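Entry for the shared binder. Reason: the reviewer on the internal report wants the predicted structure included alongside the sequence.
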Amino acid sequence: MHTTVLQRPIDRVEADALIVHHFAGGHRAGGATGDVDRALGGLISELAARGDLATDVGGVTPLFTRAGVAAPRVLVAGLGDPQRVDAETLRRAIGAAVRKARDLGARRIAVGALGSGIGGLTPSETARATVEGARLGLYRYRPAAADAIGDTGDHGIDELVLVDPDADRVEEVSDGIRWGEATADGVELARDLVNLPPNVATPTHLAKVAEELARDHGFAVTIGDRAWAEAHGMGAFLAVAQGAGHEPRFIVLEHDPSRGKEAPLVLVGKGVTFDSGGVSIKGRAGMEAMKSDMAGGAAVLGAMRTLGRLRSPRRVVALVPATENMLDAHAYRPADVLRASNGLTIEVISTDAEGRLLLADALAYAQRLKPKAVVDLATLTGACVVALGRGTAAGRFANDDALASRIDAAAAATHERVWPLPLWPEYLDDLDSDVADMKNSSGKPHGGAPIAAAFLQRFVDYPWVHLDIAGVAMRDDVRGYHTKGATGFGVRLLVHWVTHA
């Protein structure tokens, strides 16, 4: 889908469908909506007065046009309360409207600009939210994504036109389009990777994606195999990989415009490409969803794609430890004792607590980079889903208040919400072991998310945030700019954090 900005009175724009906005509460149509309303002889105002417009956020009212409007169909997108409009409102409204336009057969869609300053948004911010909402709302899984890593796919739309007749705003709108497209590219990559079947999205496939990102954006890349991990003493990572049919890969991807002069921001993503639970095998019900256990790694790769497209001036290193968690005669067992790369020994209580073992060696590896800050994302615990619900927020744990505040700000700005959870030393008591420095799980039914975070904290010695994204990596409904399946959660949050660090 190609996105452009056009200077022209909106009623004269030739498109298959024209999208304008309307607020709830009987507010009079203004801006582009007012122009279209006048061209339609007051039809929109008429319908609003009768209560026949769906003005709640995400509501869409299709109209056939009268003479005076070049487009054959107008879709009125609801924006809800004008006092509560923000970028998220616009993303949700546009996502629903463009999807409706596509369902009605539109291939060229024009969107009228919001009035200046609505919701406190600049023209650039409005354009960015519009593009993000449209691209992500039109996303659909494509089996071809396995062979087209750099392709953003067929959205079913040929062109999205942002219509703004104000010549003074065109440059800002164009900048917003650039940001929106780069962000959507990253989210779409993350969604594709999670949605792919696990026999396709293997550790080798993730490594291939990293290599293509390196080629496209000039990143440095290291793909560590089993021997590489052994040389780095990654006993925790390698233990999980013992029973895997597909070979593990430890991905290191670096964007360094500073040429080593700047301490890096490090992004760490759990990359379990399928989680059977290992010897501590999961129940069969819903196990197919365990292809999404690499959603953290997918988000990190998606964020790197966006940062590469934006040519971010910050030094960023992505770490994705990738393996399956399977079971065979070589698989690691409960009661095994492992040695992580920082020397700590770990008694295995559950082989289904494997994600923290991958992250342990990745977080220890991050130490050698002398990072400015590290953020990890992982579908780590079902306990976090119980605590915060599904599709609502990620659990946020931090050992540094300043970094936590910046992550919270990024979450608020992108509406990829996080909620602070405790990281108190008492949680480590549940990991006391008689045969090792610590257990990998308490084996108890309570406190799962903070206990897992406390385990990870033993491997960090720098400002660090852990995001447990188990409840937000997948959706089973379609709403606004969210589609069924993978969400790509974390890409926009990470990009905002890096670009505002």
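Summary line for the report: Residues 170-195 form the longest helix (26 residues).
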